[in-house]
Amino acid sequence: MSKVTIHDVATLAEVSPATVSRVLNGASVKEDLAKRTYDAIETLGYQVKSRKKHNAKENVFLIGVIVPDISSPFYSEIISGILKESFIYGYEVVIKSSESLQQREKECLEQLAKLPLNALIYYPIATIDPLYTMPFYEDIAIVIGGRENMNTPYAHVYFDNEKAGYLATKYLAKLGKKRIYYLGPIHQLEKPITSFEELLTLQDGPNKGFYVSLKRFEGYKKALEEENLPLDFNLVSLCGYTWQDGYDAARDIVTKMLDVDAIIAVNDVVATGILKFLKEQGIRVPEDISVIGYDNRSVAQISVPLLTTIDQNAYELGRECVINVMKQVTEKQIENKLLDVELIIRHSTAATNI
Fold it and tell me: Sign of the C-alpha dihedral, residues 205, 210, 214, 219?
């Protein structure tokens, strides 16, 4: 006879495995749920092990999380969503930061493999190749967060980046903008891609969905085509994620004397750097150049002028990753989840010739 597991108890009691764990650990649980759980334990003859034995995966409800930068406001919001939803399910969370370094990312995977994880929520900076070489990860639920179609058997939860690029470009075109500069996010790889020309060589590859900048660029191209605007690669480049990166990008645009009437930034922080440089040069926003950010972070609501941006709910991304993990654990369902984005119109954009 096969060994009775905590999942067997949960199925018979018609409760979640997390509820069984809370009952076994003495946490507060509704009386009817607790009774059904204890009845199932008795019926099945489930052997309750000492909590000191913290190495039996079936008695531990633990989610491992790897993010590129734990100090980033974006990933901080993701983590908040993960922690909130994990608490509801009764799961504990162990968080690792890869510090945007591929070797560090591999080390994080190796460290987490030593723990009795039930699931892994993984926001990769490079590839996910190390997972294939670690047998431990063959037996747990895995979600790849923030990336699309990495050509793997794992579930992916990600934002609609193509729609994001489309919404930003389409809106600017409708305002009468003809020369819309696109800044794409740089991807931190073992051999960093630093030019957009290099990135374009990957657009027909099997893992093109991994590259957020390519997906946004697809939306950018689609909107330009619909508005009968030419695609000018002089108006396309990659950019980092910091305020200084935005400042430097704006300086480069002005120094090259490019004819630009709008800029789509990598994120809201980059957009504030663009705003600062343009102000220093006496270039008015939005009268002379419109600027759109990305993320809808708090800085977008305090910048001068207030920043038009594409909203992507990082907190919700974290929540949805946990929900996806739970479907794998309880229902054995592996499915991708596409999260919507929204254009938030504020004061950094305006129609031409106002």
Answer: positive
Q: How far apart are CA 95 and CA 78, in angstroms?
A: 11
Digit-coded pLDDT (tens) for 224-243: 999 999 999 999 998 888 99
DSSP letter, residue 71: T
pLDDT tens digits, one per residue of 112-146: 988 888 899 999 886 666 676 677 787 789 999 99
Distance from C-alpha of 299 to C-alpha of 183, rounded to nearest angstrom: 19
Q: What is the pTM of this model?
A: 0.78
> Which tokens is 255 given?
């120094």
Instruction: Give the pair of three-digit tokens for residue 184.
Output: 């794409």
How far apart, in whole angstroms, are the C-alpha atoms of residue 296 and residue 307? 8
Q: Which residue has the tokens 């400042």?
A: 247
Q: Name the H helices within the chain.
A: 6-13, 17-24, 31-44, 73-89, 102-112, 129-132, 161-174, 196-200, 212-226, 243-255, 268-280, 314-331
Rounded to whole angstroms, the Cα distance separating 179 from 236 reads 11
Q: How far apart are CA 272 and CA 260, in angstroms?
A: 17
**Which contiguous run of DSSP H or E holds residue 334?**
none
Q: In whole angstroms, what is the distance from residue 279 CA to residue 18 CA? A: 54
| Backbone phi and psi for residue 64, each to the nearest 5 degrees, phi listed first | -95, 140
β-strands 337-339, 155-159 pairing? parallel
Which residue in 159, 125, 140, 176 sits closest to 62, CA to CA? 140
